[in-house]
Amino acid sequence: MLHDKLVVNAAGKLVPEEINGEKVIPYKGVGKYKPMGCKHAPPIPSCADYPANGDKRCPSLRDALIRSGLRDGMTISTHHHLRDGDFVANAVFDIAQELGIKGLRWFPSASFPCNAHLIPYLEDGTIDWIEGSMNGPLGEFTSKGKMKKTAILRSHGGRVQAIQDGEVKIDIAVMAAPSSDVFGNANGLTGPSATGVLGYAEMDVQYAEKVILVTDNLVPFPCLPMQIAGNFVDFVVVTEKLGEADRIISGTTQITRSPDRLIIAELAARFCEVTGIIYDGCVIQAGAGGISLAIAEYIKTILQRNQWRIRVGFGGSTQYMTQMLETGLMEYILDGQVFDTEAVRSLNENRKHQSFSVFNAYNYHSKGNLTSMIDVVTLGATEIDVNFNGNVVTHSDGVILHGIGGWQNCLFAKNTIVALPLFRNRIPVIVDEVTTLCGPGELIDVIVTERGIAINPLRSDLIEKAKDSGLPLKTIRELKEEAEAICGKPDKPKFTDRVVAAVKWVDGTVLDVIRQVAD
Amino acid sequence: MEGISGNRGPSVRSDCFISIKLGGEDGLKIELSGKTKTLYGRQIIQLVTEILLFFDIRNAHVQIEDSGALPYVIAARTEAALMRVMNSPKQFLLPEISNARRVSSRDSLRRSRLYLPGDHAKLMINAGLYQADGIILDLEDSVAPEKKHDARFLVRNALRNNDFMGAELMVRINQIPLGLQDLEYIVNQPLNVILIPKCELASQVVAIDQKIRELRGDCTEPIWLMPIIESALGIINSYEIASASPNIVALAIGLEDYTADLGAERTNDGIESFYARGMVVNSARAAGIQPIDSVFSDFENTEALRSVAMRSKSMGFAGMGCIHPAQIEVINECYQPSPNEIEKAKRIVIAFDEAQRRGTSVISLGSKMIDAPIVKRALNTMEIAVKCQLIKPNWKEDAAR
Questions:
Q1: CA–CA separation, A52 vs A64, rounded Å?
Q2: Number of domains in chain A
Q3: What's the predicted TM-score (pTM) here?
Q4: The domain B112-334 belongs to what CATH superfamily?
């Protein structure tokens, strides 16, 4: 879509005031815009319209979609707990296309490479656009300007807010449920496609007009615990298989063996120790990326040496976190998603390992959220610029790579560390200006690379604490120059004027846009 | 005729694949593909064009598949591909980076030295980060026969243009006669030590030394030599080898080949090579150079490595080779004096100084007599501790206060 009315937002980016026919608000600055208004209220049906015996089964997904009133222009939501093994989201649009439905909006909590299956439907007009994330082939498709309307990228928290505020009204939520009873009480804990938690489904089932639950593990009533309460559910569809099990949850997650990444992890952990970020009773978020896992392993030795304990570890959890829980180095795990079979087992067995919802953790338009209580979070990025701004959605060549996920929301932790290599395959990661702005630099405190650590000048407290540590401290500009000395200064990618996607900030305002890459 | 060089495929990183067909009348036709095309395509084509013109090539069809190669890698691959289809006395050299050269001395610290396969560009880039005392760019056993040609150009360029962050720069050349040709590519580059593999005779060292002198002309900065003994015959001749040239600074042993030569199985225990390792230590020390132990091949087992290295140090070895960065920290730790050793040596040296001041010849520390060899060992320990930066060079002043 060509946007001729563009305005400069508080980050200095040219952004539209209208996207896909809806008015949007340009970014105002961190904490400057306060979303107002009430919760969106979907119509409430009555018991009289549902079978008294509680059996909401429907013979097929096709049947359930038809009975849900699937028609042109609707918004269909799915969650991403099945990750790259997902069969369900793709099946929904197979059916829509067979039925000749056009102009749909897909509203997933995230997409994966397996969803490249949907590209023909974006081409033939079954789907007009995606508001969610566009990974791999979908990202390339979008960046080439092939999507009919403008994509919108939101953080996990931003998605929750968009649903709550009625910015996105979901017509039909199709939710995969690894275990369910006939009434639609469901959880992700057991079954051949177990996902552990179902936190990303929480908002969709409450706010969608129609909710279809798809399961491959129907259990006799009651399905406990009820991570999803069946009262929100319209139809239950029993299918052969929700997805490819080994792509949903990995058998084991592995710490990186790359010696370069281990250096990064060790530096990050040492930094946390010398600056007092890690202490007895601290709250941390450990990711499941290779570097994050390795940082957690180094932090483990710091805890053991000092006889400290972590009060709470925020997941996505892995076997490495559950080991810390079980050996007493961590008192609780709060989990948004689960990455391996050990973590699923722990969630089933250990009362100190609980799931939390995205609403709890990340929603900006609410009465506070948990991320600001976290002492330290370690994140990755595709680029960081000399003003500490971060990019997680595009590659330096301008092509969309992934979604925002919880990345923006995590920036509100007390200490945000971005740990990444100085360059990847010749491409510098520390740059003059990020290709796409996803996170304002004022919220990013420390950059750790294998060739040095840069502390944001705004954090004079950390600079003071680290100054005599013997750690390789450098300025962000020094890191950038070092990368360019090794790799050479890259040319800039070329774009057309066409906006293919907008990046929203956690408060719902438009932070930046992504343009079509030129041939 | 088509000249090719480099590597391609989905798992290749930081490298490129280049094919060059000379001839035609269409000028220089350069096609580039790969993930870096948007960001570096213009610069890559410019560099390749410059190299072709440097060698007076006006007509050629070049195809490049780039997987993130740094400029010196692209230059090495281009030149290697070109030199498969033509000959030239010229070499295309990018400007040397400012900190490429480091000065090393006969008795530089050589606890750890990291082997890097000479045709593997990716492993070179960050090798300096792991803080090995030395880095070996290998042209010998870790390079497949069909890649030997490519590796010479890559190693040459890496010596000049990759920042190894102060590590002593070493190249392991091939066995003579191939090894003599290798010298032409490396001896005028930033380089401290040449490793001579499978050395059996003193005359082999002399031949290498001679060739280096010829190639270097007036340059007087030394290139040190480290013969590696890997056979029964080499062990028998070890002292002669160790003293074959004044440029030899260390004598190493390679146990995989040695045990094969013996017809014995290599064990962690090392009983089968006890004699040979003893000989190498003895010959090296007799010739006044450093004895260096063989690599330990199970790089994930750092505990076994630690016990092997501790035993090696107790036999008198000064260091050992590393095949993986994870081994470096353990090896550095094992071959440097422990805090206990330093403390003990410190007291001996102080007692010795004190006795000298008083003019007494009998020194005792507690109930123990201290004689000359004990003092010598203590002085040696303190000297190594200073080199390892475990204590300050002026430690005596601190101790006096």
A1: 18
A2: 2
A3: 0.94
A4: Phosphoenolpyruvate-binding domains (3.20.20.60)
